[in-house]
Amino acid sequence: MSIGKIGSLDTTPPERQRNLDKTVFAFARSYLLGEEGISQELLNLHVRPSPDAQKLQTLAAIFERLLKSAQSAQSMPNVIGGSIGGIERLSTVLFGFDPAAVAQRYPRSEEGCKRLFDDIREQLAPRGKLNYNPRSLWRRFCGTVTSGAAFLSAFPDAEAFYAWVEPFDLNEDGRVQIATKIARQIDGIGFALACDFLKGVGFSSFSKPDVHIKEIFSQLGLSRSKDDVEVFKAVGRVAWSVGVTAYEVDHLFWMVGSGELYFAGRRLANSRAEFIALARKALGDSTPMHESTQEAELANPAGEENSTVLPVREVVEIVREWVDLHARHLPDFAGAYLWAGITALPPDAPFPLYRDVDVVLVLPEGAQDDTVEVFYRGIMLEVISIDLKAHQDAEAILANPSHGPNMATTQILADPTGILTPLHLKVASEYGRRRWIEARCEKEKDAADKQLAAMRAASTPQERLDSVWALLSALSGLLAVAQLRRPTTRRTLALLGELLEAQGRHELHETALTLFGSAHMSRADVQAMLDLSVIAFDRSVEVYHTPTPYGFTIRPHLRPYLAEATQEMIDEGNHREAMFWISALAGESYLVLQNDAPEEEKPEFASQLRAMHVALGYADTSAEVWAERVASAEHLAQEMYHIADALTMLHPE
Question: How many Å separate Cα 110 from the centre of its chain?
């Protein structure tokens, strides 16, 4: 247990920063000790974790603590806890805070949330006006209850929950990772409240980056910005510099900022502003605040908010800026346009920055580079070079299942030759005609037939996995283009399930999952596989030097595209489908590690790759069993072909 634990840092802060950390911390203590009746002993009693604190013994206690953290967000204490006489009164509705019982009665759904709200209203009669709509605080809180119950009920007991968290509580990056995981698993709480929850269940190396701490830290040079993660790490650094827990730093600066001296029975007015002014005066206004601001401006020259989500419109403008600054100067540059999923999104749609943006550069024959990954102003760009000659024939593009859908819906970013805009308009106008849909479908069928042949010839686990992976990609693409949808890579199996569900053929989706090998896998199985894959990816980034076919994906800035973009699918309930993406990126990482990792590390990573192959049924599989799998694939392909043919006939000539 980490009660009283002083956190570790990956790198030692510069001496100047350590001195500032110690000085501001000492000044914060002096500020509170200057109040009448507050002694060293009394202050320590209320800012330090109790030396007698223990792990919470039950999941019910952990669940109750989660809900207390969740309703501590702005306005919620009055609307939720205050209206019913305290969160503890929910015990009568929530079966003594038993997560399993709550999850059974109130499933993680709109129906479950509404049932919970109705039961709270009937049994506890909350005071005041009760609003229940998609944006109301009550709806948000009910979503937290139902998703929190679903999350915690997956653990057999409290000990299992602590065992899950503790491996992450070793350094600041691990703590950020586990808090982010919890924030994604539970609706209605973000990173800050997830940290507050972990702090509340006894992990004293966690702090809550609340509004008071963010303001003080950013104003006094302890943090370069008010970003939650930045401030969280800054609190951990101050704790390390001073030699105390993050819990103590959190409580000390929260008291200074809020003025809430509850243990002394009073509240200080305007304490945050007063403290900042006094501290800056005491420091001679020599904090590195201006220096930090300059660093932040260099990293973010346009002054955008530090965000994990941007509207599509803003993302497109950032990509356009990159093209103008870094692509237009290339010899014989002939244009640029967007490619893949972002082109299907409306301008105001949110775009999570753990997804990448594909952009095509049109260059003369022989001038194309391999696909490269670029990180620009917080956006992950996959830059694809395509020959200028490939843009001369609209009919060839219309018949291509990849180029056709993308050119039909793209946004042109640059068109110095005047070729791309009329080409885009031509393809968009013809795209929905049956002859072109049939042509695109036939190419996907050809690709599927090729992979069926590869399955029959495959003998090694990786050959088997590669052939099934490519087959399912082609079959998902087939149904997509038959319905004027764009094929996808990361969400291949999720899209396939959606398309088959729309045709009333859900059983074929289960067949596809069984063929891939993930039908039997639980959410916990996939989560464990993702966690190992991220570790392998991180190590492959460190050692990579031997070129591999997809080595361009082994870049540190692409980590969110493996970790967070996959977590998105797991959190949606598409964990079995997420294995498709995990197997692709993890496979490349393990290949790099087989080539470049130190010899003493290779056996462990080879064992992890083999475990993935075994879990998916590609290793330790007899020739007879594999032949049955090939036969299943052949049957599935024929079913898909029939569905695609029928869908194609629905489109006009």
Answer: 23
CA dist list (Å): 349 to 19, 170, 490: 45, 37, 19
Q: What is the pLDDT of residues 177-195, one digit of tens each?
A: 899 889 888 988 889 999 9
- CA distances to 71, 152, 197, 286 from 158, rounded to whole Å, are 22, 9, 14, 47
- Residues in a beta bridge with 266: 261
- The C-alpha atoms of residue 97 and residue 75 are separated, in whole angstroms, by 23
CA dihedral (528, 170, 250, 99) positive or negative? positive
- Site of tokens 């094929």: 487
d(CA 541, CA 534): 11
CA distance 174 to 191: 13
Give buried/exposed letters for 517-555 (b at 16+ CB in 10 A, else e): bbeebebeebbebbebbbebbebbbeebeeebeebbbbb
Q: Which of 29-38, 320-329, 628-637 has the lowest mean pLDDT?
A: 320-329
Ramachandran angles phi, psi of 339, nearest 5°: -140, 150
Q: According to the 3-state scheme, what is the secondary structure of 437-480?
A: HHHHHHHHHHHHHHHHHHHHHCCCHHHHHHHHHHHHHHHHHHHH
**Considering only CA atoms, which of 285, 212, 284 is closest in space to residue 253?**
212
pLDDT in tens, 526-537: 998 998 898 988
Q: Which two tokens stand for residue 187?
A: 């609706």
Per-residue pLDDT reduced to its tens digit, 40-60? 888 888 888 876 667 899 999
**C-alpha 66: how far from its chain's center?**
21
Query: Which one-letter DSSP state was computed for residue 416?
Result: T
Q: What's phi and psi for 374, nearest 5 deg?
A: -130, 140
Q: What is the pLDDT of residues 195-236, one digit of tens each?
A: 999 999 999 999 999 989 999 999 898 998 888 899 999 999
CB 452 within 8 A of CB 633: yes
Average pLDDT score over the chain: 86
Identify the CA nearest to 339 among candidates 424, 266, 406, 399.
406
Q: How far apart are the first and last CA of the chain?
A: 68
Residues 301-313 have a mean pLDDT of 57
